[in-house]
What we know:
Elements: H1 15-30, H2 39-57, H3 64-73, H4 79-96, H5 112-124, H6 154-170, H7 175-189, H8 196-210, H9 221-227, H10 229-239, H11 244-274
Amino acid sequence: MTADPLLALADLPGVRAAIDDARSACERLRWHEAFRRRGREARAESGIRAARASAELEGARVPVARVRAMAVGGPGTGSADALVHGALQAQVVVESLMPELGARSAPLLPPFAQLLATIHRAATAGWLDAGSVGRLRSHHIPDDLRGLGAAPPASDVAGRLELLGRVVDRSRAPALVVAAVAHGELMVLRPFQAGNGTVARALFRLLLTRGGLDPTGCVLADEVWAAAPNPYLAAAARFATGTPDDMAAWLRTCADGVASGADRAVAVADAVRAGRLD
């Protein structure tokens, strides 16, 4: 049997404690009273807020009320609106693949590369060149996340995605580790010409929920990272080195984002329960 390459990552310095903190925060969120009857509303509102925060990390900042309006009426006319609407559509895709809270089964996932292409099409169809939407990049240099160092050659992308998909599908490591590695690898690999961060964060949210760490689908790690983008991107750059210390730093960043993001989701659940979204 092939060894699971992710299992040992949970034992890197500080990682297991950070995972435990994230798990405890998610458990507290799970038993919020809002999820007895209004779980779908809470998940939808969290998707709106995750989209807003993810787009902010890409340089598009709009009020949350405007994102809610886009969820109903479609994008506006500005470039920022297009990026935000794309991030919102990416969240719609991943939410459609999340299990219902308390369900015994979940929708079948498409093959990994197809899943990424679907999320990318949703995220970029309104603003990226049509020939690049949902397609692996053919150029050596992607248009985004250049602060993470040189991207791997385009010729390496398909093979590395295939390997990543196998690892994600088969690993028995904690859900946080699997989701964080997928997130980090997509940031480093940058398989698409643009929109890679949006895809990586949407996939992270999906894997947390399907892996059982966040059954509510409401954790708002994106908001945590958007509030402190430089440490988030610096941790992603460290992940690219592949050293144990730098891998541990990235895993802790993801776990801390989940723990704090669960606390933010509690506030969303409070607002949904009270019927007072701000």
